[in-house]
Amino acid sequence: MKHTLAVLVENKPGVLARVAGLFSRRGYNIDSLAVGITDNENLSRMTIVVEGDEHVLEQVTKQLNKLIEVIKVSDLQPEESVERELALIKVNVDPEKRAEIMMITDIFRARIVDVSTRTMIIEVTGDEDKINALTTLLRQYGIKEMARTGKIAMIRGSKVIKREKG
Amino acid sequence: MGDIVNGAEALIRSLESEGVEVIFGIPGGAVLPLYDELFDSDIVQILTRHEQAAAHAADGFARATGKVGVCIATSGPGATNLVTGIANAYMDSSPIVAITGQVTVNMIGNDAFQEADITGITMPITKHNYLIKNPRDIPRVVKEAFHIASTGRRGPVLIDLPKDVQTEEFEYHNPGKVNLLGYRPTLKGHPRQIKRAADLIVKSERPVIFAGGGVIASSAHEELRQLAELIPAPVTMTLMGLGAFPASHPLSLGMIGMHGTKYANYAVTESDLLIAVGVRFDDRATGKLESFAPEAKIIHIDIDPAEIGKNVRVDVPIVGDAKLVLKELLKYVKYRARKEWQDKIERWKRKYPLSYSKDDKTLRPQYIVEKVNELVPDAVIATEVGQNQMWTAQYFKFEKPRKLITSGGLGTMGFGFPASIGAKVALPDETVIDIAGDGSFLMNIQELATAVDFEIGVKVFVLNNQFLGMVRQWQELFFNRRYSNVCLRCRRMEFTKIAEAFGGKGIEVTKPGEVEDAIKQALEIDDRPVVVDFKIAREENVFPMVPAGAAINEIIG
Question: pTM value?
Answer without folding.
Answer: 0.96
